[in-house]
Amino acid sequence: MPSLPAAGPDPEEGRRRPVEDIFDRLLALHPKLIDLSLDRMWRLLERLGHPERRLPPVIHVAGTNGKGSTVAFMRAVLEAAGKRVHVYTSPHLVRFNERIRLAGTIVDDARLTEALARAETANGGEPITFFEITTAAALLLFSEVPADVLLLEVGLGGRLDATNVVEKPLVSVITPVSIDHVDFLGETVAAIAAEKAGILKRGVPAVLGHQPREALAVIERQAARLGVPLSIMGEQYQAHEEGGRLVVEDEAGLLDLPRPRLVGPHQIGNAGLAVEALRIADLGIPTAAYEEGMRSAQWPARLQRLGPGPLTQHAPEGVDIWLDGGHNAAGGQALAAALADIEDRVPRPLVLIVGMLGTKDSGAFLAPFAGLARELIAVPIPGEHKAQPPEAVAAAARAHGMDASTAPSVTAALDGLAAYPVGPAPRVLIAGSLYLAGAVLAENGSLPD
C-alpha cells in the first residue's frame, strides 16, 4: 500500500465531497503514508474509550494474496445465514467508503465524516498515519453499530498493522504468503511470514491457506509458542474442485458445494479457506448458507468481467474485457493460470493492458504470461506519480518474449485494438495494480456496491 488511491469525487456529479476536506487534514498528520507501529493506535484508542474492546466477534485476516476474496466468501456465507456482518478491507477501488461495511451496507458519507471528525478531535493534531486514524474511526463505527461478526482485514503485514489491536478474535486467518512490500516486511518469504504471524493470539485458533514451506515453518513456530491450534490446508482440511464442484473436508465432515462464483483456480483455495475459517468459528451456519455463499460472493476487480460502459465501448465489438488488481509474482501466477483455464474452454488471443507501481517487480508479475499473452500494452496509472513508466513495463514484457507497446491510457489502448489482425476478437486482461483497477471501474461507471 505505498500510495493512497484518491478518495474520489461524487461519482454522479463529479464534485468534491465534503469528507475529502477531512481526508486532506488527516493525510497531513504524518510525513509518511506508512510507518508501521502500534504506539499511535493505542494512544488514540485510549482517548476514544477503547472501541476495540466493544466489537462484535472478530475474524482477523492477514496474508499476501487472497485476503479480499476470502473475506468476500465469508461475508457472502454469513449473510446467507442471516448474520449481520461488519467488514473492513483496504485499499478501496473508487471511494474510500468501500473500506467500511456496517451490518452489510457501505458506510455513507455522513456517518463516515462524523466518525473521522471524532477521531481527529481525539488525536489532537499529534502525528499518526492516515491508515491508523481511519482504522480507529472504523473501529469506533464497528463498536457502535450492532452486528454478529466483524471481518477485519489487515492493511499491511500484521504484527504492527493498525488492525492488530483486537485481543481475542474468534479465529485468525492467514492466506497464502508470498513476496510483496519488501521495503516494509522483509525480503524473504520467511521474514514476511513472521510479520503475518504477528496476528496470532494466545489460544485463539488459526486457519491457514496453502503456504510455501518456509512460510509455514515460521507460522507453526509462532503458533506453538502461543498455544494456537492450527488448521492447515492440505493437513487438517482439504479443499479442491471435483466434477465442477467445491469439496471441503475436515474432521467435522465433507461439504460438497457449488463451484465459487469468483473466477479462477486460485479461488478454490480462497473459498476453501473461508469455509474452514467459518467452521472453526463455530457460528452454527447451515449447509444451505455455504451453498448460497459460493453462488453469490462478489469481489470487484478480481477477474471481474467488465460490462458495457463508457470505457468498454472503446473496444471493438466482440472483445472480451477482464479486470484484476493483481500486481505481484504470486498474483501473476494465479491470473495466468485462470486465463489459461478460460483459454482452454474458449480460445482467443490474449492482450494484456498493464500499469504498475514503481515498487512492484513487473518482470516477476509478467513472467507467468510468457507464451500465453500475444501482446502487452503498457499504460500509466491515472493520478499516480509513483507508477512505473509504461516504457519500463513494456521492456519487462519484451524480456519475456512478448510483443509490447505503450499507450497514454486504457481508453487509448482499447481504441488501438480496432487495428487488431483478422481473426477471433481478443480477450483483454487489464491488470497490474488495484489503483489502475479503481480508475478503470470509475471510468466505466462500474461502482462497487
TrEMBL record:
Functions in two distinct reactions of the de novo folate biosynthetic pathway. Catalyzes the addition of a glutamate residue to dihydropteroate (7,8-dihydropteroate or H2Pte) to form dihydrofolate (7,8-dihydrofolate monoglutamate or H2Pte-Glu). Also catalyzes successive additions of L-glutamate to tetrahydrofolate or 10-formyltetrahydrofolate or 5,10-methylenetetrahydrofolate, leading to folylpolyglutamate derivatives. InterPro entries: Folylpolyglutamate_synth (IPR001645), Folylpolyglutamate_synth_CS (IPR018109), Mur-like_cat_sf (IPR036565), Mur_ligase_C (IPR004101), Mur_ligase_C_dom_sf (IPR036615), Mur_ligase_cen (IPR013221). It catalyses: (6R)-5,10-methylenetetrahydrofolyl-(gamma-L-Glu)(n) + L-glutamate + ATP = (6R)-5,10-methylenetetrahydrofolyl-(gamma-L-Glu)(n+1) + ADP + phosphate + H(+); (6S)-5,6,7,8-tetrahydrofolyl-(gamma-L-Glu)(n) + L-glutamate + ATP = (6S)-5,6,7,8-tetrahydrofolyl-(gamma-L-Glu)(n+1) + ADP + phosphate + H(+); 7,8-dihydropteroate + L-glutamate + ATP = 7,8-dihydrofolate + ADP + phosphate + H(+); 10-formyltetrahydrofolyl-(gamma-L-Glu)(n) + L-glutamate + ATP = 10-formyltetrahydrofolyl-(gamma-L-Glu)(n+1) + ADP + phosphate + H(+). Residues 317-433 form the Mur ligase C-terminal domain. The keyword Cell membrane does not apply. Residues 61-222 form the Mur ligase central domain. It comes from Starkeya nomas. Pathway: Cofactor biosynthesis; tetrahydrofolylpolyglutamate biosynthesis; Cofactor biosynthesis; tetrahydrofolate biosynthesis; 7,8-dihydrofolate from 2-amino-4-hydroxy-6-hydroxymethyl-7,8-dihydropteridine diphosphate and 4-aminobenzoate: step 2/2. It is an enzyme of class 6 (ligase). GO terms for cellular component: cytoplasm. Its cofactor is Mg(2+). It comes from the Bacteria. One of its GO terms (biological process) is folic acid biosynthetic process. Keywords: ATP-binding, Folate biosynthesis, Ligase, Magnesium, Metal-binding, Nucleotide-binding. The lineage of its organism: Bacteria, Pseudomonadati, Pseudomonadota, Alphaproteobacteria, Hyphomicrobiales. Belongs to the folylpolyglutamate synthase family. GO terms for molecular function: ATP binding; dihydrofolate synthase activity; metal ion binding; tetrahydrofolylpolyglutamate synthase activity. This is Dihydrofolate synthase/folylpolyglutamate synthase. Its EC number is 6.3.2.12, 6.3.2.17. The keyword Isomerase does not apply.
